[in-house]
Specification:
The protein has 195 residues and is α/β, with parallel strands linked by helices. It has a single domain, classed as Aminopeptidase, CATH 3.40.630. It is 25% helix and 17% strand. It is built from 4 helices and 7 strands; from the N terminus they run H-H-E-E-E-H-E-H-E-E-E. The strands form 2 sheets. A 5-stranded mixed beta sheet has the order 1-2-4-3-5, with helices on both faces. A two-stranded antiparallel sheet has the order 6-7. The longest helix is centred in the middle third of the chain and has 20 residues. The C terminus is likely disordered.
Length: 195
């Protein structure tokens, strides 16, 4: 996962321009022997993975985002952005790698016959999170069809390495999310700053 994250970190793409990132995710999914479903406009990907044998009746989606920000990197690390004025400053490269990791681990466990319980998972690799248009884009592409619940993630530099945090309600104190269902669900509601 580290190498995937670093590959993406070197090659960030702005919202509405995630074509190479989408293609890279498709290649990673293909390497797992799974079927990548490319969203409209060739930006964004969904991947379904169902347990063999008995299958859960509920499908859980796990979402990560693909886009980067229009910020100039100051890093001199080997994996620093190669695109002038664009960088993954918000962790979306890590989110993409983590969602791929979920697929890879479930796929590997299933291949060796180790699964805790029946499952139906959909990985959603969402473009354009930073412009708040990617959720609608993926919904229009069918990403939430047959999905009963969804998990999103965000890296948090205040957490110790190897730990996770779970929040109920508002994800961050600086925002208030209007949770609205549109066409069966929503990824990003209207964010109101300054709350």
């Amino acid at each position: 996962m580290k190498e995937i994250r670093r590959y993406l970190h070197r090659r960030p793409e702005l919202s509405e321009q995630e074509y190479e990132t989408t293609q890279f995710v498709c290649e990673l999914v293909d390497d797992l022997g799974l079927q990548a479903n490319v969203a409209q406009e060739k930006r964004g990907v969904t991947v379904d993975l169902d347990s063999v044998g008995e299958v859960s009746r509920r499908r859980v989606a796990v979402r990560g985002d693909l886009d980067a920000l229009p910020i100039q990197t100051r890093s001199t690390a080997e994996y620093a952005s190669r695109h002038d004025g664009v960088m993954h400053a918000c962790g979306h490269d890590a989110h993409t790698a983590i969602v791929w990791g979920v697929l890879a681990i479930l796929n590997d466990l299933q291949k060796v016959g180790i699964t805790c319980s029946p499952f139906r998972v959909r990985a959603i690799f969402q473009p354009a999170e930073e412009t708040s248009t990617g959720g609608k884009h993926m919904i229009a592409s069918g990403a939430l069809e047959d999905v009963d619940s969804a998990l999103a993630l965000h890296v948090d530099p205040t957490r110790l390495v190897g730990t996770i945090g779970v929040r109920n309600g508002r994800p961050y104190d600086v925002c208030r999310y209007d949770q609205r269902r549109q066409n069966g669900g929503s990824f990003d509601g209207g964010v109101r700053r300054g709350f």
